[in-house]
């Protein structure tokens, strides 16, 4: 019997975990696979091992694992696969297939454009966009977010889209805001490239308010990505890749 295991990041903020669970339950409702479980990589329960074991207890003989992560960083490439490999040894007769994270996808650009337009602020010639990623020491994260920024620039017809990171990568948020402040652009639209609310959103708001709310420029903080219905569609694609055994899929059996 087939199962899907959704792995979310996890957060110390209860609301963030609740948002993730609500989203995954919507994904489950759209999928006919009989066994579906969710879990968190860190900071919240159930753990990956708990949910994997639950799949097996419910009769799973093949588990499709979907990382519900925005970009291909160390979590997706090392942390989760290492944990899955450790758990797999407990259940050698259960086949496991590991999928890709959300990654670079046209739907993600569509969500960003929606976040810009829902501010109701005019995107004029003197407007620029700052895309804020969580950040990682993994260079693939920087590559992917830069690619998304360029796709956004082209599709929305923007003059300039910069990227920055909240941790572990350069430029940092304050450095990027300073660069924007020194630019000729009068309106800076700031989009947090984050799935859930929490501590990081508070950090962004505080940084803008304390250091950059001086009247010289207009800073428009857009909503974070959130668990948008288009991300449900992307996860369906990722499952289809697994079920069809498309290239770029990792097999464990």
The total domain count is: 2
Strand arrangement within the widest β-sheet reads 2-1-3-4-9
Outline the low-pLDDT stretches. none
Report the biggest beta sheet as strand number plus sense, adding barrel if it closes. Answer: 5 strands, mixed
Question: Averaging pLDDT over every residue, what do you get?
Answer: 92
> Architecture of the largest domain in CATH?
3-Layer(aba) Sandwich
What is the end-to-end distance? 15 Å
- What's the count of strands? 9
Cα-based radius of gyration, to the nearest Å:
19 Å
CATH topology of the largest domain: Rossmann fold
Please work out how many helical segments DSSP would assign: 8
- Report the sheet-strand fraction: 15-25%
At a glance:
The chain has helices spanning 14-29, 48-57, 74-88, 106-117, 139-156, 173-182, 199-211, 229-243; strands at residues 2-8, 35-40, 62-67, 95-98, 127-133, 161-165, 187-192, 218-221, 250-252. It has 253 residues and is α/β, with parallel strands linked by helices. The radius of gyration is 19 Å and the shape is elongated.
How would you describe the overall organization of this protein?
By secondary structure, the protein is an alpha/beta fold. It folds into two domains: 2-102 and 228-252, 3-Layer(aba) Sandwich (Rossmann fold), CATH 3.40.50.1400; 106-221, 3-Layer(aba) Sandwich (Rossmann fold), CATH 3.40.50. 43% of the residues lie in helices and 19% in strands. It contains eight helices and nine strands. It has helices at 14-29, 48-57, 74-88, 106-117, 139-156, 173-182, 199-211, 229-243; strands at 2-8, 35-40, 62-67, 95-98, 127-133, 161-165, 187-192, 218-221, 250-252. A five-stranded mixed β-sheet has the order 2-1-3-4-9, with helices on both faces. Helix 4 crosses helix 5. The protein is elongated and about 65 Å long. The relative contact order is 0.17. The mean pLDDT is 92.
